[in-house]
Amino acid sequence: EKGGYDYFMLKEIAEQPKAVADTLLGRIDAAGSLTLDEVRISTAELREVDKVVIVACGTAFHAGLIAKYAIEHWTRIPCEVELASEFRYRDPILDPRTLVIAISQSGETMDTLMALRHAREQGSKVLAICNTNGSTIPRESDAVLYTHAGPEVAVASTKAFLTQLVACYLVALYLGQVRGTKWGDEIRAVIRDLSKISQEVERVLKTMEPVRELARSLATKNTVLFLGRHVGYPVALEGALKLKELAYMHAEGFAAGELKHGPIALIEKDLPVVVVVPSPRGRSVLHDKIVSNIQEIRARGARTIVIAEEGDEAVAPYADHLIRIPATPTLLQPLVATVPLQVFACELATARGNEVDQPRNLAKSVTVE
Ligand code: F6R
Question: Is 364 annotated in the active site?
C-alpha cells in the first residue's frame, strides 16, 4: 500500500535512505572491508578479469554509466557500458576473462536477458545486479548481487536506481579490494563514507519543498535541458529520462563540455536548464569549467537551475535557482544529486495532471525485445 502517500513513486522516493542502507547491510564487516559472499565467482577468477562490460536498459543503464567511472578509477580495469538492446547485434568482443555485469530491477527485461545469454555463450562470466529475488536474469547468471530496495511499484525507477548505484560501488570497491590496487586507502575511506550515505540521502529529502515549488512553476514549459560532467553526466541523463517518462516533456541530458559542439544553439530566453555541479574539492578543474558553462548559458537568457554542494559559493551568482546537496566524495555524488531530479519530475508530472505511477505507453517490466 501507499503508506499515506498519494503515489507509490512518492513513497518509493521517501524509502530511499532505508533502501540504500539495506543494500549495504551485512556487506561491510567490522574491520571496514567488504564481504560479498554471494558473489560466487572466485577471487582467483576476479583477479584474472581484464575487461568489464555492463549491459542494462533505461535507468539501469544510467547506473551502469556511473559504475564505469568507479570501476575504472578503483580497479584500473577497462569498463564498457552498453545498452542491452544494442549489445549482441554488433558482435561484441567477449571471452572468459571478461566480466559482464547485467543490471536490472525487475530481472525480467528481455533485452538484458538476451545480452547476458549472448555473453555466457561466449564464455564470459555474468554477475547480475538485481532487485527481484528468483527472477530470470539472476537465475541465468553465474552470480547475483541483490539490491534490497524492496518491491518497486511505480513504473519510474527511483529507489531501485539508488540501490543499483550502491551495488555497483560495492562491486567496484570489491574488485579493487580483491586485486589490491594503489587506491587501497581511498577504497577504505570510501567504504566508510558509503556506510554513512543513507543519512545524507535522508537530509536531501528534508529540503525538497523549494524543488517542488520550482517544478510547479515550470508546468507550462515544453523543454528542459540537463547538463553534467563526470558522474554528473549520467545523472543529467537520468533527470531527463524521468522528465520524459513522467511529465511527457521534451528533455535532454548533455555532457556540459559538449555544449559548445552543438547543443548551445538550443539555449534561448527562459529555457530551464538544470546543471549538476561536481564537487569543488574533488575534480576542481571540472568544477571551474562547469561554472563557465553556467555563465555562458545564463548570458544567453537561460533560467539556470543549479544543483551544487553545500558550501560551493562560486556557483551562487549564476544560479536562478540553487538546490543544495551534501558534500560527498566525487564518485558518490549521484546518490544525493539524483534525488532532487526525481522529486522535480514527479511534481512536474502531477502539476501537468499526469498519472505518476502509471505513465502512458509504459510497463514496469519490459518482457519483449
Ligand atoms: C525508467 C525505467 C526504465 C527501466 C528499464 C530497465 O524509470 O524504469 O527505464 O529502468 O526498463 O528495467 P529493469 O531495471 O527492470 O531491467
Answer: yes
